[in-house]
Amino acid sequence: xxxxxxxxxxxxxxxxxxxxxxxxxxxxxxxxxxxxxxxxxxxxxxxxxxxxxxxxxxxxxxxxxxxxxxxxxxxxxxxxxxxxxxxxxxxxxxxxxxxxxxxxxxxxxxxxxxxxxxxxxxxxxxxxxxxxxxxxxxxxxxxxxxxxxxxxxxxxxxxxxxxxxxxxxxxxxxxxxxxxxxxxxxxxxxxxxxxxxxxxxxxxxxxxxxxxxxxxxxxxxxxxxxxxxxxxxxxxxxxxxxxxxxxxxxxxxxxxxxxxxxxxxxxxxxxxxxxxxxxxxxxxxxxxxxxxxxxxxxxxxxxxxxxxxxxxxxxxxxxxxxxxxxxxxxxxxxxxxxxxxxxxxxxxxxxxxxxxxxxxxxxxxxxxxxxxxxxxxxxxxxxxxxxxxxxxxxxxxxxxxxxxxxxxxxxxxxxxxxxxxxxxxxx
Length: 427
Known about the structure:
The chain is of the alpha/beta class. It has helices spanning about 5-20, 55, 140-160, 180-195, 210-225, 245-255, 265-275, 290-300, 305-310, 315-320, 330-335, 365-375, 395-410, and strands at about 65-70, 80-90, 95-105, 115-120, 160-165, 205-210, 235-240, 350-355, 385-390. Helix 4 crosses helix 5 (about 210-225) and helix 7 (about 265-275) packs across helix 9 (about 305-310).
Protein backbone atom coordinates (compact mmCIF):
# COMPACT_ATOMS: atom_id res chain seq x y z
CA UNK A 1 0.00 0.00 0.00
CA UNK A 2 1.44 3.29 -0.98
CA UNK A 3 1.83 5.64 1.98
CA UNK A 4 1.03 8.57 -0.30
CA UNK A 5 -2.57 7.41 -0.29
CA UNK A 6 -2.85 7.17 3.50
CA UNK A 7 -4.73 10.41 3.93
CA UNK A 8 -6.10 9.45 7.39
CA UNK A 9 -2.57 8.74 8.60
CA UNK A 10 -1.32 12.09 7.42
CA UNK A 11 -4.20 13.97 8.98
CA UNK A 12 -3.94 12.54 12.45
CA UNK A 13 -0.20 12.32 13.07
CA UNK A 14 0.90 10.99 16.43
CA UNK A 15 -2.56 9.76 17.50
CA UNK A 16 -2.67 7.44 14.51
CA UNK A 17 0.86 6.32 15.23
CA UNK A 18 -0.25 5.48 18.74
CA UNK A 19 -3.17 3.39 17.62
CA UNK A 20 -2.83 2.50 13.96
CA UNK A 21 -1.32 -0.93 14.42
CA UNK A 22 -3.84 -2.22 16.93
CA UNK A 23 -3.71 -5.56 15.26
CA UNK A 24 -2.30 -5.22 11.85
CA UNK A 25 -2.49 -8.26 10.92
CA UNK A 26 -8.45 -19.10 4.94
CA UNK A 27 -11.39 -20.59 5.65
CA UNK A 28 -13.56 -22.09 2.93
CA UNK A 29 -15.41 -19.53 0.87
CA UNK A 30 -18.46 -19.67 3.13
CA UNK A 31 -18.72 -19.17 6.91
CA UNK A 32 -18.84 -22.13 9.25
CA UNK A 33 -22.01 -23.02 11.10
CA UNK A 34 -20.67 -21.50 14.30
CA UNK A 35 -19.64 -18.25 12.66
CA UNK A 36 -20.94 -14.85 13.64
CA UNK A 37 -24.01 -13.25 12.06
CA UNK A 38 -23.88 -12.74 8.30
CA UNK A 39 -23.41 -8.92 8.45
CA UNK A 40 -19.72 -9.32 9.37
CA UNK A 41 -18.76 -11.15 6.16
CA UNK A 42 -17.44 -9.75 2.90
CA UNK A 43 -20.47 -10.56 0.75
CA UNK A 44 -18.95 -9.51 -2.57
CA UNK A 45 -18.81 -12.29 -5.21
CA UNK A 46 -15.74 -14.51 -5.07
CA UNK A 47 -14.07 -14.57 -8.51
CA UNK A 48 -14.34 -17.97 -10.20
CA UNK A 49 -10.56 -18.47 -10.15
CA UNK A 50 -10.56 -18.59 -6.34
CA UNK A 51 -13.45 -21.01 -5.95
CA UNK A 52 -12.41 -24.50 -4.88
CA UNK A 53 -14.04 -27.80 -4.04
CA UNK A 54 -13.94 -29.53 -0.69
CA UNK A 55 -11.72 -32.21 -2.21
CA UNK A 56 -9.25 -29.60 -3.46
CA UNK A 57 -9.11 -27.83 -0.11
CA UNK A 58 -8.59 -31.19 1.58
CA UNK A 59 -5.40 -31.97 -0.34
CA UNK A 60 -2.08 -31.79 1.50
CA UNK A 61 -1.62 -28.21 2.58
CA UNK A 62 0.77 -26.34 0.31
CA UNK A 63 -0.46 -28.20 -2.79
CA UNK A 64 -0.92 -25.91 -5.79
CA UNK A 65 -4.49 -26.19 -7.10
CA UNK A 66 -4.18 -23.83 -10.05
CA UNK A 67 -2.36 -20.77 -11.37
CA UNK A 68 -3.30 -18.01 -13.79
CA UNK A 69 -1.10 -15.60 -15.73
CA UNK A 70 -2.14 -11.97 -15.19
CA UNK A 71 -1.23 -9.14 -17.54
CA UNK A 72 -1.19 -5.36 -17.36
CA UNK A 73 -0.11 -4.56 -13.81
CA UNK A 74 0.81 -0.84 -13.94
CA UNK A 75 3.78 -1.27 -11.57
CA UNK A 76 5.15 -4.73 -12.42
CA UNK A 77 5.02 -4.06 -16.15
CA UNK A 78 6.26 -6.92 -18.33
CA UNK A 79 7.34 -9.18 -15.48
CA UNK A 80 5.45 -12.46 -15.49
CA UNK A 81 2.79 -12.27 -12.77
CA UNK A 82 0.55 -15.12 -11.68
CA UNK A 83 -2.31 -15.71 -9.30
CA UNK A 84 -2.11 -18.97 -7.40
CA UNK A 85 -4.64 -20.95 -5.39
CA UNK A 86 -3.56 -23.74 -3.07
CA UNK A 87 -4.72 -25.97 -0.24
CA UNK A 88 -4.13 -24.52 3.23
CA UNK A 89 -5.30 -24.81 6.85
CA UNK A 90 -6.93 -22.38 9.26
CA UNK A 91 -6.23 -21.79 12.94
CA UNK A 92 -8.04 -25.03 13.82
CA UNK A 93 -6.29 -27.10 11.14
CA UNK A 94 -9.42 -27.23 8.99
CA UNK A 95 -8.97 -27.24 5.19
CA UNK A 96 -9.22 -23.83 3.55
CA UNK A 97 -8.32 -22.10 0.29
CA UNK A 98 -5.13 -20.05 0.21
CA UNK A 99 -4.00 -17.66 -2.50
CA UNK A 100 -0.99 -15.56 -3.47
CA UNK A 101 0.67 -13.63 -6.26
CA UNK A 102 3.87 -15.01 -7.77
CA UNK A 103 6.00 -12.67 -9.89
CA UNK A 104 9.07 -13.82 -11.80
CA UNK A 105 12.20 -11.93 -12.85
CA UNK A 106 13.20 -11.68 -16.49
CA UNK A 107 15.28 -14.85 -16.22
CA UNK A 108 14.52 -17.73 -13.87
CA UNK A 109 17.38 -20.15 -13.29
CA UNK A 110 18.15 -22.90 -10.84
CA UNK A 111 18.22 -21.47 -7.33
CA UNK A 112 16.63 -18.11 -8.18
CA UNK A 113 16.13 -16.41 -4.79
CA UNK A 114 12.56 -15.75 -3.61
CA UNK A 115 11.48 -12.84 -1.44
CA UNK A 116 8.09 -13.28 0.25
CA UNK A 117 6.56 -9.85 0.86
CA UNK A 118 3.93 -9.59 3.58
CA UNK A 119 2.68 -6.05 3.30
CA UNK A 120 0.34 -4.10 5.55
CA UNK A 121 -2.96 -5.24 4.07
CA UNK A 122 -4.97 -4.17 7.15
CA UNK A 123 -8.39 -4.54 5.55
CA UNK A 124 -11.65 -6.48 5.73
CA UNK A 125 -12.20 -6.75 1.97
CA UNK A 126 -10.74 -9.89 0.40
CA UNK A 127 -10.11 -8.06 -2.89
CA UNK A 128 -7.70 -5.69 -1.12
CA UNK A 129 -5.08 -8.46 -1.16
CA UNK A 130 -2.15 -8.65 -3.60
CA UNK A 131 -3.20 -11.43 -5.97
CA UNK A 132 -6.74 -10.09 -6.34
CA UNK A 133 -5.43 -6.65 -7.31
CA UNK A 134 -2.86 -7.82 -9.88
CA UNK A 135 -4.96 -6.73 -12.87
CA UNK A 136 -6.58 -3.69 -11.25
CA UNK A 137 -6.06 -0.59 -13.36
CA UNK A 138 -4.08 2.46 -12.30
CA UNK A 139 -6.19 4.62 -9.99
CA UNK A 140 -8.37 1.71 -8.88
CA UNK A 141 -8.64 1.50 -5.09
CA UNK A 142 -7.21 -2.03 -5.07
CA UNK A 143 -4.27 -1.00 -7.24
CA UNK A 144 -3.55 1.97 -4.98
CA UNK A 145 -3.82 -0.17 -1.87
CA UNK A 146 -1.15 -2.59 -3.17
CA UNK A 147 1.09 -0.10 -4.96
CA UNK A 148 3.68 0.05 -2.19
CA UNK A 149 4.05 -3.74 -2.11
CA UNK A 150 4.26 -3.95 -5.90
CA UNK A 151 6.97 -1.26 -5.96
CA UNK A 152 8.91 -3.17 -3.31
CA UNK A 153 8.54 -6.31 -5.43
CA UNK A 154 9.81 -4.47 -8.50
CA UNK A 155 13.05 -3.65 -6.72
CA UNK A 156 13.67 -7.33 -6.00
CA UNK A 157 12.71 -8.39 -9.51
CA UNK A 158 15.33 -6.02 -10.93
CA UNK A 159 17.91 -7.88 -8.84
CA UNK A 160 16.86 -11.13 -10.50
CA UNK A 161 14.88 -12.37 -7.48
CA UNK A 162 11.40 -13.86 -7.67
CA UNK A 163 8.63 -12.53 -5.42
CA UNK A 164 5.66 -14.13 -3.67
CA UNK A 165 2.95 -11.88 -2.19
CA UNK A 166 0.61 -14.03 -0.07
CA UNK A 167 -3.02 -13.06 0.51
CA UNK A 168 -2.41 -13.82 4.16
CA UNK A 169 -5.74 -12.47 5.44
CA UNK A 170 -7.40 -15.42 3.74
CA UNK A 171 -10.48 -15.73 1.59
CA UNK A 172 -12.66 -14.21 4.30
CA UNK A 173 -10.44 -11.22 5.15
CA UNK A 174 -9.59 -12.44 8.65
CA UNK A 175 -7.57 -9.43 9.71
CA UNK A 176 -5.67 -10.17 12.92
CA UNK A 177 -5.98 -14.00 12.78
CA UNK A 178 -2.22 -14.43 12.80
CA UNK A 179 -2.02 -18.19 13.28
CA UNK A 180 -4.03 -18.66 10.09
CA UNK A 181 -2.05 -15.93 8.31
CA UNK A 182 1.24 -17.63 9.09
CA UNK A 183 -0.03 -20.89 7.64
CA UNK A 184 -1.22 -19.27 4.42
CA UNK A 185 2.25 -17.74 4.00
CA UNK A 186 3.98 -21.09 4.52
CA UNK A 187 1.61 -22.80 2.09
CA UNK A 188 2.06 -20.05 -0.50
CA UNK A 189 5.79 -20.76 -0.53
CA UNK A 190 5.27 -24.53 -0.64
CA UNK A 191 2.80 -24.19 -3.51
CA UNK A 192 5.26 -22.13 -5.57
CA UNK A 193 8.33 -24.26 -4.81
CA UNK A 194 7.01 -27.84 -4.78
CA UNK A 195 5.44 -27.34 -8.20
CA UNK A 196 7.56 -27.08 -11.34
CA UNK A 197 5.22 -24.49 -12.90
CA UNK A 198 7.37 -21.47 -11.98
CA UNK A 199 10.85 -23.01 -12.13
CA UNK A 200 11.38 -22.28 -8.42
CA UNK A 201 11.60 -25.86 -7.14
CA UNK A 202 15.32 -25.46 -6.32
CA UNK A 203 14.96 -21.98 -4.86
CA UNK A 204 15.30 -20.71 -1.31
CA UNK A 205 12.99 -18.08 0.16
CA UNK A 206 13.29 -15.31 2.73
CA UNK A 207 10.23 -13.78 4.39
CA UNK A 208 9.94 -10.04 4.92
CA UNK A 209 7.08 -8.13 6.49
CA UNK A 210 6.35 -4.88 8.25
CA UNK A 211 3.69 -3.86 10.75
CA UNK A 212 0.68 -6.15 10.28
CA UNK A 213 2.76 -8.02 7.72
CA UNK A 214 5.46 -8.33 10.37
CA UNK A 215 3.02 -10.17 12.62
CA UNK A 216 2.08 -12.57 9.85
CA UNK A 217 5.76 -13.07 8.98
CA UNK A 218 6.69 -13.92 12.57
CA UNK A 219 3.78 -16.33 12.93
CA UNK A 220 4.93 -18.08 9.75
CA UNK A 221 8.48 -18.31 11.10
CA UNK A 222 7.29 -19.62 14.47
CA UNK A 223 5.05 -22.30 12.94
CA UNK A 224 7.43 -23.44 10.20
CA UNK A 225 9.26 -26.13 12.24
CA UNK A 226 6.06 -28.12 12.90
CA UNK A 227 3.67 -26.97 10.18
CA UNK A 228 6.00 -26.97 7.16
CA UNK A 229 9.26 -28.64 8.27
CA UNK A 230 10.56 -29.13 4.71
CA UNK A 231 9.89 -25.54 3.64
CA UNK A 232 12.25 -23.72 1.29
CA UNK A 233 12.19 -20.73 3.67
CA UNK A 234 15.62 -20.04 5.18
CA UNK A 235 15.15 -16.76 7.11
CA UNK A 236 12.69 -14.03 8.08
CA UNK A 237 12.88 -10.25 8.53
CA UNK A 238 10.12 -8.46 10.45
CA UNK A 239 9.79 -4.83 11.49
CA UNK A 240 7.33 -2.59 13.31
CA UNK A 241 5.63 -5.73 14.58
CA UNK A 242 2.69 -5.47 17.00
CA UNK A 243 3.23 -8.28 19.50
CA UNK A 244 0.56 -7.73 22.17
CA UNK A 245 -2.98 -7.09 20.93
CA UNK A 246 -4.56 -6.71 24.41
CA UNK A 247 -1.90 -4.10 25.21
CA UNK A 248 -2.99 -2.20 22.12
CA UNK A 249 -6.65 -2.44 23.10
CA UNK A 250 -5.66 -0.87 26.40
CA UNK A 251 -3.86 1.87 24.47
CA UNK A 252 -7.17 2.70 22.80
CA UNK A 253 -8.95 2.74 26.13
CA UNK A 254 -6.52 5.23 27.63
CA UNK A 255 -7.98 7.75 25.20
CA UNK A 256 -11.29 7.40 27.03
CA UNK A 257 -14.09 9.31 25.35
CA UNK A 258 -11.68 11.27 23.15
CA UNK A 259 -12.80 10.66 19.54
CA UNK A 260 -10.24 8.35 17.96
CA UNK A 261 -9.57 8.86 14.24
CA UNK A 262 -7.89 5.43 14.08
CA UNK A 263 -10.67 3.39 15.65
CA UNK A 264 -11.12 1.63 12.30
CA UNK A 265 -8.16 -0.58 13.21
CA UNK A 266 -10.04 -1.81 16.25
CA UNK A 267 -13.15 -2.38 14.19
CA UNK A 268 -11.18 -4.25 11.53
CA UNK A 269 -9.13 -6.54 13.72
CA UNK A 270 -11.96 -7.49 16.08
CA UNK A 271 -14.29 -8.34 13.20
CA UNK A 272 -11.47 -10.08 11.32
CA UNK A 273 -10.77 -12.35 14.29
CA UNK A 274 -14.49 -13.05 14.83
CA UNK A 275 -14.63 -14.19 11.21
CA UNK A 276 -11.94 -16.76 11.98
CA UNK A 277 -13.02 -17.83 15.46
CA UNK A 278 -16.80 -17.54 15.18
CA UNK A 279 -19.13 -15.77 17.59
CA UNK A 280 -19.11 -18.67 20.05
CA UNK A 281 -15.42 -18.08 20.69
CA UNK A 282 -15.34 -14.32 20.17
CA UNK A 283 -18.60 -12.40 20.19
CA UNK A 284 -17.88 -8.97 18.74
CA UNK A 285 -20.72 -7.98 16.41
CA UNK A 286 -23.38 -9.12 18.88
CA UNK A 287 -22.05 -6.70 21.51
CA UNK A 288 -21.91 -3.65 19.28
CA UNK A 289 -24.18 -0.63 19.45
CA UNK A 290 -26.55 0.02 16.54
CA UNK A 291 -24.02 2.57 15.28
CA UNK A 292 -21.19 0.05 15.57
CA UNK A 293 -23.16 -2.60 13.66
CA UNK A 294 -23.98 -0.12 10.93
CA UNK A 295 -20.30 0.77 10.54
CA UNK A 296 -19.32 -2.90 10.35
CA UNK A 297 -21.91 -3.63 7.67
CA UNK A 298 -20.50 -0.78 5.59
CA UNK A 299 -16.85 -1.71 6.28
CA UNK A 300 -16.91 -5.43 5.57
CA UNK A 301 -15.72 -5.20 1.94
CA UNK A 302 -13.41 -2.20 2.27
CA UNK A 303 -9.67 -1.60 2.12
CA UNK A 304 -7.58 0.23 4.68
CA UNK A 305 -8.28 3.91 4.00
CA UNK A 306 -12.03 3.55 3.50
CA UNK A 307 -12.31 1.27 6.54
CA UNK A 308 -10.54 3.86 8.68
CA UNK A 309 -12.73 6.64 7.38
CA UNK A 310 -15.98 4.90 8.37
CA UNK A 311 -14.85 4.43 12.00
CA UNK A 312 -13.16 7.81 12.24
CA UNK A 313 -13.49 9.47 15.66
CA UNK A 314 -15.34 6.60 17.30
CA UNK A 315 -14.66 5.31 20.82
CA UNK A 316 -15.33 2.05 22.73
CA UNK A 317 -18.43 3.75 24.15
CA UNK A 318 -19.91 4.72 20.78
CA UNK A 319 -19.08 1.37 19.14
CA UNK A 320 -19.69 -1.05 22.04
CA UNK A 321 -21.54 0.91 24.69
CA UNK A 322 -18.74 0.19 27.20
CA UNK A 323 -15.46 1.80 28.19
CA UNK A 324 -13.55 -1.37 29.14
CA UNK A 325 -13.12 -3.75 26.21
CA UNK A 326 -10.66 -5.82 28.25
CA UNK A 327 -13.54 -6.90 30.46
CA UNK A 328 -14.64 -9.06 27.51
CA UNK A 329 -12.54 -12.10 28.33
CA UNK A 330 -13.20 -13.88 25.04
CA UNK A 331 -11.67 -10.93 23.17
CA UNK A 332 -8.63 -10.99 25.45
CA UNK A 333 -8.13 -14.74 25.08
CA UNK A 334 -8.30 -14.72 21.28
CA UNK A 335 -6.12 -11.61 21.18
CA UNK A 336 -3.44 -13.37 23.21
CA UNK A 337 -3.54 -16.43 20.97
CA UNK A 338 -2.64 -14.12 18.10
CA UNK A 339 0.04 -12.13 19.94
CA UNK A 340 3.72 -13.10 19.84
CA UNK A 341 4.13 -12.06 23.47
CA UNK A 342 2.05 -15.06 24.51
CA UNK A 343 2.65 -17.45 21.60
CA UNK A 344 4.97 -20.19 22.79
CA UNK A 345 6.44 -21.70 19.58
CA UNK A 346 9.83 -20.18 18.72
CA UNK A 347 11.32 -19.87 15.22
CA UNK A 348 14.42 -21.86 14.34
CA UNK A 349 15.38 -19.84 11.23
CA UNK A 350 17.62 -16.74 11.31
CA UNK A 351 15.73 -13.53 12.12
CA UNK A 352 16.22 -9.83 11.44
CA UNK A 353 14.10 -7.76 13.85
CA UNK A 354 13.77 -4.00 13.63
CA UNK A 355 11.62 -1.01 14.54
CA UNK A 356 11.83 2.17 16.60
CA UNK A 357 11.63 2.63 20.36
CA UNK A 358 9.99 5.99 19.62
CA UNK A 359 7.12 4.35 17.70
CA UNK A 360 4.36 5.14 20.20
CA UNK A 361 1.77 2.71 18.85
CA UNK A 362 4.16 -0.17 18.15
CA UNK A 363 7.13 0.37 20.49
CA UNK A 364 10.17 -1.79 19.80
CA UNK A 365 10.47 -2.40 23.54
CA UNK A 366 7.57 -4.89 23.36
CA UNK A 367 9.26 -6.82 20.55
CA UNK A 368 12.49 -6.67 22.53
CA UNK A 369 10.82 -8.74 25.25
CA UNK A 370 9.92 -11.38 22.67
CA UNK A 371 13.53 -11.44 21.44
CA UNK A 372 14.74 -11.85 25.03
CA UNK A 373 12.46 -14.87 25.44
CA UNK A 374 13.68 -16.36 22.19
CA UNK A 375 17.33 -15.89 23.12
CA UNK A 376 16.89 -17.33 26.61
CA UNK A 377 15.27 -20.43 25.12
CA UNK A 378 17.64 -20.71 22.13
CA UNK A 379 20.88 -18.76 22.70
CA UNK A 380 22.32 -19.93 19.36
CA UNK A 381 19.30 -18.77 17.34
CA UNK A 382 20.76 -16.19 14.90
CA UNK A 383 18.95 -12.90 15.49
CA UNK A 384 19.88 -9.41 14.38
CA UNK A 385 18.10 -6.86 16.57
CA UNK A 386 18.32 -3.51 14.80
CA UNK A 387 16.67 -0.47 16.43
CA UNK A 388 16.04 2.42 14.03
CA UNK A 389 15.97 6.15 14.73
CA UNK A 390 12.33 6.61 13.76
CA UNK A 391 10.66 8.60 15.21
CA UNK A 392 7.51 7.37 13.45
CA UNK A 393 6.26 3.99 12.35
CA UNK A 394 6.97 4.26 8.62
CA UNK A 395 10.26 6.10 9.19
CA UNK A 396 11.69 2.92 10.74
CA UNK A 397 10.64 0.89 7.72
CA UNK A 398 12.41 3.18 5.26
CA UNK A 399 15.53 3.52 7.41
CA UNK A 400 16.01 -0.23 7.77
CA UNK A 401 15.57 -1.31 4.16
CA UNK A 402 19.24 -1.12 3.08
CA UNK A 403 20.21 -3.25 6.10
CA UNK A 404 17.37 -5.71 5.56
CA UNK A 405 18.14 -6.20 1.89
CA UNK A 406 21.86 -6.68 2.54
CA UNK A 407 21.01 -9.25 5.22
CA UNK A 408 18.67 -11.08 2.80
CA UNK A 409 21.33 -11.12 0.07
CA UNK A 410 23.79 -12.68 2.51
CA UNK A 411 21.26 -15.41 3.39
CA UNK A 412 20.79 -16.23 -0.28
CA UNK A 413 24.58 -16.29 -0.71
CA UNK A 414 24.86 -18.89 2.04
CA UNK A 415 26.89 -16.73 4.41
CA UNK A 416 26.69 -17.53 8.14
CA UNK A 417 23.79 -15.70 9.75
CA UNK A 418 24.91 -13.08 12.28
CA UNK A 419 23.78 -13.42 15.88
CA UNK A 420 24.01 -9.96 17.43
CA UNK A 421 21.02 -10.09 19.79
CA UNK A 422 21.56 -11.29 23.33
CA UNK A 423 19.21 -12.16 26.19
CA UNK A 424 19.85 -8.77 27.76
CA UNK A 425 17.98 -7.94 30.96
CA UNK A 426 14.76 -5.99 30.72
CA UNK A 427 14.42 -2.52 32.18
